[in-house]
Amino acid sequence: MSVLYAHDAFDRLYFADARHPGDTQMSAGAAAVAARQITGGVTVANLLSFAGFLGSQQDGKTMLKKWLIWALLAVLGLSACGQAEDTHPGQPVTKRKVIFKTILRTLEPMGLVVRGHNEYNAAQFRAAAARLQELSTQPWQYFTPGSNYPPTRAKPDVWAKPAEFKQAQQKFITAAAGLNQAAQSNNLDTIRPAFAAVESSCKSCHQQFRGIPH
């Protein structure tokens, strides 16, 4: 699926300050590389939120963080300029990308809570988990024959190995349902492993079925 590599790279940058507040070893070039990995699933609002988060930290004025913010914004701008218009019948690539981005926007607030960066609100978390389960079944219908065209990041294996792709879909759907069920407990200790299972399903699917844009 098309969520977590954007998510792996975004998560790595978004929470770098909390995990390693004194680490300023990442270069601007490395930041730009990471930014290129995430722009397919991150909006301007995400990046502005990211910039605000960094600015709120005690060492938010470091050169590293300035480089990170500007690299992310610049790469996003270049990426947007290069987007190919989807003129194919039914626009299957556009439709599945919209759903995947909605999934990402649904996951991000839950991730902030699970990692302890935002306060846990049980009702809000339950609503987000329910929404994720609803979304989890929606993008797959748009992986139609002949829909491997720019700006897709789907690998040919999506169509060459349909049984394995179906298994990857089901793993995510099952994990999303598990997170929704765990959210009903109103207990973060129960929720955290369920959320980790969702992230794992995204990552494993991306490793096999998601590549660079073409």
What does this molecule look like?
The two termini are 16 Å apart. Helix 1 packs antiparallel against helix 3 (28-38) and helix 9 (162-183) runs antiparallel to helix 10. Mean pLDDT is 77; it is low at 1-44. This protein has 214 residues and is mainly alpha-helical. The protein has helices spanning 4-14, 16-19, 28-38, 44-55, 63-81, 92-114, 122-135, 157-160, 162-183, 188-209.
The biggest beta sheet is recorded as: none
- Strand content bin: under 5%
What spatial form do the alpha-carbon principal axes imply?
elongated
Order of helices and strands: HHHHHHHHHH
- Cα-based radius of gyration, to the nearest Å: 18 Å
Number of separate strands: 0
Query: What's the mean pLDDT score?
Result: 77
Distance between the termini: 16 Å
The helicity comes to 55-70%
Summarize the structure.
The chain is mainly α.
List the helices and strands and how they pair.
Elements: H1 4-14, H2 16-19, H3 28-38, H4 44-55, H5 63-81, H6 92-114, H7 122-135, H8 157-160, H9 162-183, H10 188-209
Helix pairs in contact: 1-3, 1-10, 3-5, 4-5, 6-7, 7-9, 9-10
Descriptive labels:
about 210 residues; mainly alpha; about 0% strand; disordered N terminus
